[in-house]
Write a structure and sequence with these properties.
Elements (H helix, E strand, L loop, with lengths): L9 E3 L4 E4 L5 E2 L9 E3 L8 H6 L2 H11 L15 E3 L17 H18 L9 E2 L1 E4 L13 H4 L15 H13 L3 E2 L1 E4 L11 H10 L3 E6 L14 E5 L5 H7 L5 H18 L4 E8 L6 H14 L3 E6 L18 H10 L6 E5 L1
Parallel strand pairs: 2-7, 6-8, 7-9, 9-10, 10-11, 11-12, 12-13, 13-14
Antiparallel strand pairs: 1-5, 3-4
Helix pairs in contact: 5-6
Bound molecules: S-adenosylmethionine and iron/sulfur cluster (SF4) (2 copies).
Length: 355
C-alpha cells in the first residue's frame, strides 16, 4: 500500500468525527471552524453516509490534512483540533505539553483511509467508523452566559437558519443510514451552542441510540427537570460553575442555582436507585469569580453530600466577551489545581482538565 510522501506536520483529530447543528448544517467542528460550513444537505432527502459523512466536501477536509498535510481552512490555525509538530498541544494554554506523535497519528489515519478505499471500494477519504457525532439537539438556550453566543448576541437565532431543534425523524434516519452501510458510530455527544435538554425529543433520541448500542453523553446547564431516560447515557456533564448562588450567577446568567443543584443531586440519587452506570460529572469551570479556595472546598463538600461521581475543575482560556468575567487568575494551570487538590483532599474523585 502506498504511503503519502509528504512529511506530516499536521494532524486534525476531528478527521473521523462530525459536528451537526440543530438545522443539519455541518461546520468544521465546534471551535474556530464553527462558522465554516462543510456541507448543509437536506437530512431526510439524502443518505447520511454517502451524501454527508463521506461527501466530496468532507473527504476533501480529511485529505487536505491527512494526505497533503496542509491546513484545510484558515481557521485551522486557531482550532483546538489541530496538532502541529513542535507546537503546544493546547495552543491556548501556557502550560500545555508539546504535541507528540503528530507524524504517526496522521500517517495511521491516512493508512486507514487508503485501506477503506480498497476494502470497501469507496472514494478515498471515506470513513467507515465515526468516532464521535457531536450533535446540537437544540440551538436555543434559556441562559445567557457572557462567553457564549446566547449571552452576547441580541438575537442569536438570527445567525442560523431554522429548524432550531434537531428533528427526531432526522435522528432516526441518520442512525438507520449508518446501519444500512455497516458504518459504526462509536458515540454521540449531545452538545452544541444551545441547551440540549430543551429539545423534547431528546429522550427518544437517547433511547433510539441506546437500542443501537451507541455510547452517549451530554453537556447540560442542568436548569431543567431531570428525566430518568438520561440515565441511559454514559455520562452527564452538569455545567455548574461556582458553589454558591452568587458565584454561579456571575457567569451562568439567568441560571437558577437551586434547579441546577437539584438536577445534579436527582441524577445521582436516581442513578443509585436504578443501578445505572451513567457517570454524573460536575463540570465546574474555573473563572476569576469561581476559583477561590473557599468556593472549591465547598464544591468538594457538596460533591460528597450529593453522591455524584466526579468533580472536574475545568481551566478555561475564555471568560466573558465583555471581560466582566475573566479566566482564572490563580487556578490557571494543571499544576496549580493539582496542588490545590493535593492540599485539600475532601472529595475522592476531584480532578482537573482543560476546556
Ligand atoms: C455552549 S455549551 C452548550 C451546552 C450547555 N448549554 C452547557 O452549557 O453545558 C457547551 C460547553 O461549553 C462549556 N462552556 C461554556 N462557556 C465556557 C467557557 N467560557 N469556557 C469553556 N467552556 C465553556 C459549557 O460548560 C459546555 O460544557
Ligand atoms: S483543525 Fe481545521 S479541519 Fe480540523 S476541525 Fe479544526 S478547522 Fe476543521
Ligand atoms: S447554558 Fe450553555 S448554551 Fe446556554 S448560554 Fe450558557 S454556555 Fe451557552
Amino acid at each position: 500500500m502506498l504511503l503519502p510522501t509528504v512529511e506530516h506536520k499536521l494532524y486534525c483529530w476531528a478527521w473521523n468525527r462530525i459536528y451537526i447543528k440543530a438545522n443539519g448544517r455541518v461546520p468544521c467542528w465546534c471551535d474556530s471552524g464553527e462558522t465554516h460550513t462543510i456541507i448543509h444537505n437536506n437530512f431526510l432527502q439524502n443518505d447520511f453516509v454517502t451524501d454527508i459523512v463521506n461527501s466530496p466536501e468532507m473527504r476533501k477536509m480529511r485529505l487536505d490534512i491527512l494526505e497533503s498535510s496542509q491546513r484545510y481552512i484558515q481557521e485551522c490555525a486557531n482550532c483546538c483540533c489541530l496538532l502541529t509538530a513542535g507546537e503546544r498541544k493546547f495552543k491556548r494554554y501556557h502550560d500545555s505539553e508539546q504535541a507528540d506523535n503528530v507524524q504517526q497519528q496522521a500517517s495511521a489515519a491516512y493508512r486507514s483511509l487508503k485501506k477503506i478505499s480498497v476494502t470497501r471500494d469507496w472514494p478515498l477519504g471515506s470513513i467507515e467508523k465515526i468516532s464521535e457525532i457531536q450533535l446540537e439537539p437544540s440551538f436555543p438556550c434559556n441562559l445567557r452566559c457572557p462567553g457564549c453566543i446566547h449571552g452576547i448576541h441580541k438575537s442569536p437565532l438570527s445567525t442560523e437558519e431554522p429548524p432550531y431543534l434537531f428533528p427526531i425523524e432526522w435522528f432516526k434516519h441518520m442512525l438507520d443510514c449508518t446501519k444500512a452501510h455497516n458504518v459504526e458510530i462509536k458515540r454521540i455527544q449531545y452538545c452544541g451552542k444551545g441547551e440540549p435538554t430543551l429539545n423534547k425529543a431528546l429522550p427518544d433520541m437517547i433511547k433510539y441510540a441506546h437500542d443501537n448500542n451507541i455510547g452517549q453523553s451530554i453537556d447540560t446547564n442542568s436548569n431543567q427537570e431531570f428525566n430518568d431516560t438520561y440515565l441511559l447515557l454514559d455520562k452527564i456533564n452538569c455545567s455548574i460553575d461556582g458553589s454558591s448562588k452568587e458565584a454561579y450567577g456571575t457567569y451562568r446568567r439567568k441560571g437558577n442555582w437551586n434547579k441546577a443543584i437539584d438536577f445534579m443531586g436527582t441524577a445521582a440519587k436516581h442513578k443509585r436507585q436504578t443501578g445505572s452506570k451513567c457517570i454524573i460529572r460536575w463540570k465546574y469551570i474555573l473563572f476569576d469569580t469561581t476559583e477561590s479556595i473557599e468556593q472549591l472546598n465547598t464544591a468538594q463538600k457538596m460533591a460528597c453530600e450529593l453522591g455524584i461521581d466526579e468533580l472536574d475543575f475545568v481551566i478555561t482560556a475564555c471568560g466573558a466577551f465583555d471581560s466582566s468575567v475573566l479566566p482564572p487568575r490563580y487556578m490557571n494551570s494543571i499544576k496549580a489545581v493539582q496542588q490545590y487538590i493535593a492540599d485539600n483532599p475532601i472529595f475522592h474523585k476531584t480532578m482537573v482538565s482543560r476546556s
